Amino acid sequence: MSVTTLVLAGCGSLDELAYDPPTTPTQWCLDRPCVELGGTVLNEPLGTALVALLTVLWLAAGAGFLVSRRRQRSRTWLGIALLLAGLGAGQAGISYQAFAYELKCAGWQTCRLTTGWEVGYSLTQAASVAAMLVAVAFACTVGRTRRGIITFAAVDVAVYAGVVALGVALPSATLLSFTVLMAFAVPGIVLVLVVASRRFRATRDPMDRSLVMAAWLLVAVQLAYFASWLSGATQLLWDGGAGIYVSENEVLHVGMILWLGYVLIRLGPRLRDREDVPAGAGTAGG
To answer: What is the pTM of this model?
Structure first.
């Protein structure tokens, strides 16, 4: 049974959560593109295409790292992280873009706030960040530092899963929000940046430089997403249906495609485990 199936099985209570202010199905399709195809209303064609492309690229990249892992645990865990991100992107594309109207609005007087697909997305994204952190732990650290980072990653994702379970059971829009997901994901991203930067200052190794750049690019993509969201540019460009629809999600998807390209081209050929240094041989630390 898949993670999504498990999530969907327990998400009936999510129907109690509605948009605030209340949004009717008609209003939903005034605020974003809706295209009827064979009796099914599809949303946001551009966003759907981008997230579909990103899903395929993420899954292919993850599989590529696993195939080329060469007994390197850092490559194995980065492959897992990318596969999880791809699964999350697929779930997000179903509920946030392509079938948002059908899942949230069809048959309701007012549209629902979220769905089990979105809960599944949040869980897989949190697990993806944790797996990425484990990959960096194997690439940049040894000994107690490595064990500490891996323990932090495991605890972080486990606690977040508990928060999500509580959010579904209550249900609570706050606990299931993207803001709470970021509150658990950001410390992992920051830790990746700190660990990789510390290692690069000690080694000047091209792999460590690539890890630092990948971390900074990931931060930049997230900042661009939030800047687009806060700007309100989506509705200005959409102009009630008279303009074009470009949301903060498209900014995120394009940014993540560029980030993934950097990971594959610059980091992919270099990523390897850091090996323990024999006693007395000296170490750069960390």
So the answer is: 0.91
